Amino acid sequence: MRKNSIKNIRINGEVQKELSNIIRGEVKDPRIHPLTSVTSVIVAPDLKTCKAFISVLGDEAQAADTLAGLRSAEGFIRSQLARNLNLRNTPEIRFILDESIAYGVEMSRKIDELTGGKDETD
Fold first, then answer.
1. Residue 122 DSSP SS3
2. Distance (Å, rounded) from C-alpha 17 to C-alpha 43?
3. 99-108 average pLDDT score
């Protein structure tokens, strides 16, 4: 299977949806922040590994705690993923903190500062 094939894109979407459901509803670790979302998932073409990009709405300490909680629950999450998805191999999940949303908010704030908070229609 090629990296950007339709099948691989579909598998990425299904794994992302299932990971979101598992993290939101089945993982009971108190370190995981309630406003945690899976922004994207990249499954390797051989279905052996998976990178899950996680976004946490909170400060850096909450994000670090959430990442630690997810890494400790990785075995449980992988077993639930295997139960919910019918894949040849259940990928080994690597959680990565996605800071692109925070970066976008920061850039938007800086642009507003430079323009003096003026609206374009003024």
1. coil
2. 13
3. 85
Report, as an integer, the average pLDDT of 21-33: 92
- Is pLDDT above 70 for 29? yes
Picking from 61, 62, 56, 59, the residue whose alpha carbon sits closest to that of residue 39 is 56
**H-helix segments, the chain:** 6-25, 60-72, 74-84, 100-114
Q: Could you tell me if 69 and 31 are in contact, meaning their C-beta atoms sit under 8 angstroms apart?
A: yes
Q: Specify burial of residue 15 (Cβ count, 10 A radius: 0-12, 13-18, 19+).
A: buried
Rounded to two decimals, the pTM is: 0.81
54 vs 121: CA distance, rounded Å = 36
